Amino acid sequence: MPHLSIDYSPSLEERADIPALCAALHKIMVSSDVFPTAGIRIRAHRADHVIVADGHADNDFLAMTLSVGAGRSTDQLKAAGDALFTAAQEGLKDPLATPHFALSLEIRVINPDLSWKDTPIHARLTGIS
């Protein structure tokens, strides 16, 4: 269950290619040996109503939250997070070159006792019924 949720300020769409960023982050996740392809989800949501930091009109943000199932070591998650954050920094190079941008990533480990799933996609991609 590696689900990457991305929230971003609306004016960031003028300064960054959000679909290309999602594709680059997907490539990182698929190429890692940490995440099963069948469980990968990447969702980007524009936050239509935002106030960022001091409220300056030029301020933008992109906040990523990666939710994963239990069972991965801190070192594995740190390496995956480093790779994702580096890819995001590369894809957001222009906004990061300004004093009006904030980029973040947080990884959350989900308690398996509090997570329900019914995912035929997983069975199709892994061959497990």
Write structural notes for this entry.
The protein is an alpha/beta fold. Helix content is 33%, strand content 25%. The chain has a four-stranded mixed beta sheet with strand order 2-1-3-4, covered by helices on one side. The radius of gyration is 16 Å and the shape is elongated. It starts with a strand and ends with a helix. The model has no long low-confidence stretch (mean pLDDT 93).
**Regions with little confidence, pLDDT below 50 for 5+ residues:** none
- Largest sheet geometry: 4 strands, mixed
Number of discrete helical segments: 4
Helix content: 25-40%
- Portion of residues in beta strands equals 15-25%
- Please state how the strands of the largest beta sheet are arranged side by side: 2-1-3-4
Features:
129 residues, alpha/beta, four-stranded mixed β-sheet, 4 helices, 4 strands
Furnish the topology, listing elements before pairings.
Layout (H helix, E strand, L loop, with lengths): L2 E6 L9 H14 L9 E6 L13 E10 L4 H18 L1 H4 L4 E10 L9 H7 L3
Parallel strand pairs: 1-2, 3-4
Antiparallel strand pairs: 1-3
Helix pairs in contact: 1-2
